[in-house]
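User: Hey, quick favor. My workstation is busy. Could you predict this chain's structure for me?
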Amino acid sequence: MLTQMKIEFFTIVYNGQPWIRGQAEFFRRLEGVDWRWHVVEGLAEHVKDTAWCKEAGGRISDFENRNSNLSTDGTREFLDELKKEFGDKILLYRPPGAEPWPGKKAMIDCFLPQLEDGYLLWQLDVDEFWKPDQVRQIVAEFEQRPELTAGWFDCDYFFGWDRCSSRPGVFGNFREFE
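Assistant: No problem, here it is.
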């Protein structure tokens, strides 16, 4: 049964391998839900909303020596192939010109004019994994309770291949300020 509420997923990504492949598998199994996936690819400068990255010592290394501001790990090519597979269900956005995006907010702002009211907007990080049944249950909750305007979900946070935490109060689950 197809749900009535449409979901507009969005992901911002730069060098998202191997995780982006998991998202493709998720969408292949997401039946009974009307969805589109907005994928914004490319480097984001550490300015404005992401200036904290620079203050913490982050940098875009060797940008001047690059031929592109797009992914260099195969993500770009993988997304191009997904677009062929899914057609209009996947919308790809890349920075105009040869410069990086001017912050992550600019990445999100590029697709917002295409959205309509009444749809569920869902941020899907490249390394965040959902089961199709979970999505259907969440959509059903929003359909049954139209007063809902947002959802918050604690997550399991992986600190390495063999270290995981799902406790509140750790990275990704700071309820007081995230």
